[in-house]
Design brief:
Length: about 290
């Protein structure tokens, strides 16, 4: 039972950890930081944390064949960094609901790309789970319950964020054919972390954290709980689950984010959140 469903559980737990990101993001953004600063803290902090873990417990995981660097450029720059930048930009152009729904076009990109590259079957069950997961994400985002704002540029940015988000499952699968999950996760953040230094001035978040020590805890939570842990869990699950299924299972993220908002910030639990939760549960059950 554990051997069969363990990888699925890793992916679900990884998605749940990603769903907690808003708990830490809100505190950091309220502390005079901008999205690029938060992305730098997340990506470069993730790099440092993973490096410390591997130096202490498994230095062998640091060894790679340099000919495989393009795969890690794919997971780190193409996926993690570009997805973050495009998603934050989309939020500036469109309503948050629209940005969230466009981001969760990612499982569709994964399913279609996996079918072309690895001949993963596009079954009725997988399509049904995909539809249920996307519908659930749209319910949770609130796109059906109020006014939304959309621009052409925002639409393209949102679709781009979904595409780049999906690419982690694609590049990651190539890398996992040769390396253990910890190696893939670490080198992903080597490139995501160093790339973040090129788009944000590290002096700004450093000054903010120094000036207000209360920001250190949400920064640590962002790095450990919503970056390092979920990427390790998701990558471990991806090593043994079809890319398309993994992407659909990770759609539990927005549901956890909505529940976290209810419990931590007193946001209302409305019928749309409940419907979204039900749809995500259905999608997971279909893929059992």
């Amino acid at each position: 039972m554990v051997q069969k469903y363990g990888p699925h559980l890793c992916i679900l737990l990884g998605g749940a950890c990603w769903g907690l990101l808003g708990l830490f993001n809100r505190s950091l953004l309220a502390g005079a930081l901008v999205p690029r600063d938060v992305a730098l803290i997340r990506n470069f902090g993730g790099l440092l944390a993973l490096l410390a873990i591997l130096l202490l417990f498994d230095r062998s995981a640091l060894k790679i064949n340099w000919r495989h660097l393009p795969w890690f450029l794919g997971t780190g720059i193409v996926s993690v960094l570009l997805f973050t930048l495009l998603y934050f930009s989309c939020q500036q152009q469109c309503s948050l609901a629209v940005a969230a729904v466009l981001l969760y076009t990612a499982p569709t990109f994964v399913v279609l790309t996996s079918a072309v590259l690895w001949k993963e079957p596009v079954t009725r069950r997988k399509l049904a789970a995909l539809a249920a997961a996307f519908l659930g994400c749209s319910f949770v985002s609130g796109v059906w319950s109020g006014d939304v704002t959309v621009t052409v540029q925002g639409l393209l940015l949102g679709l781009g964020s979904g595409f780049f988000y999906a690419m982690y499952s694609i590049f990651g699968r190539y890398a996992l054919a040769h390396y253990q999950p910890m190696t893939v996760t670490f080198y992903t953040f080597v490139f995501a972390g160093l790339g973040s230094l090129l788009v944000s001035d590290p002096r700004r978040p450093a000054a903010a954290l120094t000036a207000d020590s209360r920001l250190i805890w949400p920064a640590l939570g962002l790095v450990v709980v919503s970056t390092v842990l979920p990427y390790i869990l998701y990558t471990r699950g991806l090593a043994r689950v079809e890319s398309g299924k993994a992407a659909i299972l990770a759609s539990v993220e927005p549901v956890v984010a909505a529940l976290a908002g209810v419990l931590a910030f007193g946001e209302p639990m409305n019928v749309w959140v409940v419907l979204g939760l039900g749809c995500i549960v259905v999608s997971v059950y279909i893929l059992r």
